[in-house]
Amino acid sequence: MDKYWHSVVLDNDYCNGCTNCLSRCPTQAIRVIDGKAKIMKERCIDCGECLKICHFHAKGTLSDNLEKIFEYKYKVALPSISMYGQFSAEYDIEDIFQSLYKLGFDMVYDVAYAADILTKYQNELLKDPTVEKPVISTYCPAITRLIQIRYPSLIDNITCLESPMEIAARQVKKKLMAEKGLKFEEIGVFYIAQCPAKITSIKQPLGLEKSYIDGGISLESIYSRLIKVVDKGSREFPITQTASGNGVGWGMVGGQSFGLDTERYLAVDGIEEVIRVLDKMELGKLPEIDFFEGYACVTGCSGGVLNVENPFMAKARIRMKSTELKSYNPDEIDSNLTREDLEWDQEMEARTILKLDKDFKIALKKMSDLEEIANKLPGIDCGACGAPTCRALAEDIVMNRAQYSDCLLLGRYNRRRRKREKNEDK
């Protein structure tokens, strides 16, 4: 597998080089070269912002087909918590689970119950005086990767606890091996994904050597099949693990924080707003916050790009469903687990995206050249050159990925500057 595997992909046949995606990418991972968009793999965090803005459907998502589940003897579905908001209010959570059984799964495990498990141990983490605050949730892998790239000084604030889907996968595999005598490799666990970042975190997880999940199936790819078989009140198949309202609430922004034993939390949705908050956090300007949950998508996971419902309608449904369920009780959580059982098995390292050269002296020279070139460019960040900003173009010029002539406004800008300087000298 490539060093950087991504669920977000480009289809050049559909791309017309419009540059709409340039300014939306939070890590400046996109360039338009020869009239076609290109993704710089080392920068991409699979947030899906380019998928949302592309009017020509040139961006897509790699995910597993439903048919892959039949490669395994026993097939388990892990529905994303946001999936509960994709069906009208007449269907309850168990109705949705039943529809997954009808597609060929042998078991459906409630990921929201794993969120209940994680809530208990996040509370333990917050009470630990040795843990650096604010604690940053890892529920949105796009935000975790954003921190890895843009905010390496905040890596130590990340919880280092596995996500609910990973906890669910581990729990269900242990359960099936013990109760049914199945071998590890005979059990296929598939996550029904709401966004490309979740699929990427399965193929190339952060903090884990290997994911316990065997594949990620996008919800949009199977939704039409689900809606055809969902049946109100059907209870043909067994239901495993019913979550509390707290666990189901994780499907929307603020859901994690509602179950915590603190009011010193901040929940932010939309990657631009998350970036503004992380900028302040990096400077130490949020001392009153103990816990931070951030989502790349507006409304949280209910706004995932692989969902099908309007994100605000989905959020409302999740909120309503969560109020109908039992209250969260930490005493009901599996007491055999410890916080160490849920922690990552690998440390996360910063991902350096601006690596000008392996030789330190050459890198310093290139940095100096970059600053000089950036000062010569107009600084209006129009994107016409195929780079998102003038500084990004300066970087591309230094790295021999672009040239001065790519700036369509440079000549006009220099003429105006010379005229202005001439008038000032008079």
- What's the rounded overall pLDDT mean? 92
Shape: globular
Distance between the terminal alpha carbons, to the nearest Å? 64 Å
Gyration radius, in Å: 24 Å
SSE string: EEEHEEHEHEHHEHEHHHEHEHHHH
Helix content: 25-40%
Helix count, per DSSP? 14
CATH class of the largest domain: Alpha Beta
- Biggest sheet features: 4 strands, parallel
Low-confidence stretches: none
Strand order of the largest sheet: 6-5-8-9
Q: Roughly what fraction of the amino acids lie in strands?
A: 5-15%
CATH level-two architecture of the largest domain: 3-Layer(aba) Sandwich
Q: Based on DSSP secondary structure assignment, what is the total number of beta strands?
A: 11
CATH fold assignment of the largest domain: Rossmann fold
Tell me the number of structural domains: 3
Structural class, from helix and strand content?
alpha/beta
How would you summarize what this structure contains?
This protein is α/β, with parallel strands linked by helices. It has helices at 49-53, 93-102, 111-127, 141-150, 164-180, 196-203, 219-229, 245-248, 255-258, 271-282, 311-324, 360-376, 390-398, 410-425, and strands at residues 8-10, 30-33, 36-39, 59-61, 74-79, 107-108, 135-136, 187-193, 215-218, 265-269, 291-295.
